């Protein structure tokens, strides 16, 4: 019997006794709770909602039901105030859960739910010639983890990097490069130097408005295919992309497509035409807009000079993706500050008559601040992601030198732990929460951190190595204490946790689960002699193995490596 069947047994015991209440079996099932404190049983049924109908106090009802109930499928059933507490056959559930995990291995928690339907993820999407910000890091790691979650739920995923590789800022960049830049500098360190030129432009353009005129001219040249402008654009783009790819490699994230904004240049006219055909375009002060009613500002499709905008490109991109991938859902992992933009996108597609507009979803996330202040490229107040990763790996290396100086592959482990710390830190908070970034906080190796979970996994692996562990099916436990049972209930929850994380588009559900399982395991470890030759030795080792499997899989879903030793 696994934990799901145990819950069904609770329902099946209650159904005949509650016949007169007209509650359906499903309603009864949904009322069953899991008590916070395991001493109150594994499941509880509250009786408040029956009081009115049965004209009795909830306490009396609980006692009466317990008297009538078939208790064969439980070790104990008791009335406690307005609750009926059920103690399941823990021996059987332990045996079944552990064996299920050993057989499934890394596939434990997989479900058929998605039926191979496609989910498109628009993620990362940094802007060319600018450093990848902490916001882009959030988008990258949240998107990557969501992709892993949906794969585990049997969805196909398409990870698209919608690069910001078009727009008037390229005119500014060209002007700045030609005035203050050098080829040699860009080659040496493209992002830093391009960024420097850009910031300089913005420091000077208030007093020298002629700079803006020049920038507009260069962007026009680019739009018209001028060879020099095109060459510069391609060069900025490829140098930036090389730098981004280094970061993606560090993070272990890959993409199915790098089609950015520029890819849609030749698809603008179709979108404008479609909007015109559907009579949705209105002239407004020389610009062309789509009116979206009282609740949303109109979507500006074309500026008075004929230039298309961010949303025009997103309309074209949405249409292209629907045609190319026939997606079931299209998720945009982008900061909350773009909420209105995505509402406009969705509303415009709906007005165009596309019923799939409902499948467009903005998966928003909170802002990262530094010292309480907003980060901004223009002002030069940025946290450089590459620097963060480097510092974090350095700290990891120091820790390893102190704790385990003889460890093999120290460099690899330092990398896994340092990068894992940053990724985990980013994913453990609810995605919509804002948080202030402090490096010391991120790379702390105790408390609620990635390295803590990684360390718990490595500890489990070391026990198994010491025991020369061999898989062998679990029998019924000779004895079963509360610490063991606490792990079994955590392990049994994993498949549900993955589903919940998918439904809420919330990797933090997995991160919090992993922290909890690690804590439960460390508590068990502190109170149990695992390697003692007695009747339950194999069971304990199987338990440790199951913990290792599930911790590793939870970390992998988050995009964090789980070294065997650290
Ligand atoms: N490049 C944009 C930015 O950095 C994010 C793009 C998000 N994706 C999209 N399809 N609009 O703000």
From TrEMBL:
<keyword id="KW-0436">Ligase</keyword>
<keyword id="KW-0067">ATP-binding</keyword>
<comment type="subunit">
    <text>Monomer.</text>
</comment>
<comment type="similarity">
    <text>Belongs to the class-I aminoacyl-tRNA synthetase family.</text>
</comment>
<dbReference type="InterPro" id="IPR014729">
    <property type="entry name" value="Rossmann-like_a/b/a_fold"/>
</dbReference>
<dbReference type="InterPro" id="IPR035684">
    <property type="entry name" value="ArgRS_core"/>
</dbReference>
<keyword id="KW-0963">Cytoplasm</keyword>
<dbReference type="InterPro" id="IPR009080">
    <property type="entry name" value="tRNAsynth_Ia_anticodon-bd"/>
</dbReference>
<protein>
    <recommendedName>
        <fullName>Arginine--tRNA ligase</fullName>
        <ecNumber>6.1.1.19</ecNumber>
    </recommendedName>
</protein>
<dbReference type="Pfam" id="PF05746">
    <property type="entry name" value="DALR_1"/>
</dbReference>
<keyword id="KW-0648">Protein biosynthesis</keyword>
<dbReference type="InterPro" id="IPR008909">
    <property type="entry name" value="DALR_anticod-bd"/>
</dbReference>
<keyword id="KW-0030">Aminoacyl-tRNA synthetase</keyword>
<dbReference type="InterPro" id="IPR001278">
    <property type="entry name" value="Arg-tRNA-ligase"/>
</dbReference>
<dbReference type="Pfam" id="PF03485">
    <property type="entry name" value="Arg_tRNA_synt_N"/>
</dbReference>
<dbReference type="Pfam" id="PF00750">
    <property type="entry name" value="tRNA-synt_1d"/>
</dbReference>
<feature type="domain" description="Arginyl tRNA synthetase N-terminal">
    <location>
        <begin position="4"/>
        <end position="88"/>
    </location>
</feature>
<dbReference type="InterPro" id="IPR036695">
    <property type="entry name" value="Arg-tRNA-synth_N_sf"/>
</dbReference>
<keyword id="KW-0547">Nucleotide-binding</keyword>
<dbReference type="GO" id="GO:0004814">
    <property type="term" value="F:arginine-tRNA ligase activity"/>
</dbReference>
<feature type="domain" description="DALR anticodon binding">
    <location>
        <begin position="453"/>
        <end position="566"/>
    </location>
</feature>
<feature type="short sequence motif" description="'HIGH' region">
    <location>
        <begin position="126"/>
        <end position="136"/>
    </location>
</feature>
<dbReference type="InterPro" id="IPR005148">
    <property type="entry name" value="Arg-tRNA-synth_N"/>
</dbReference>
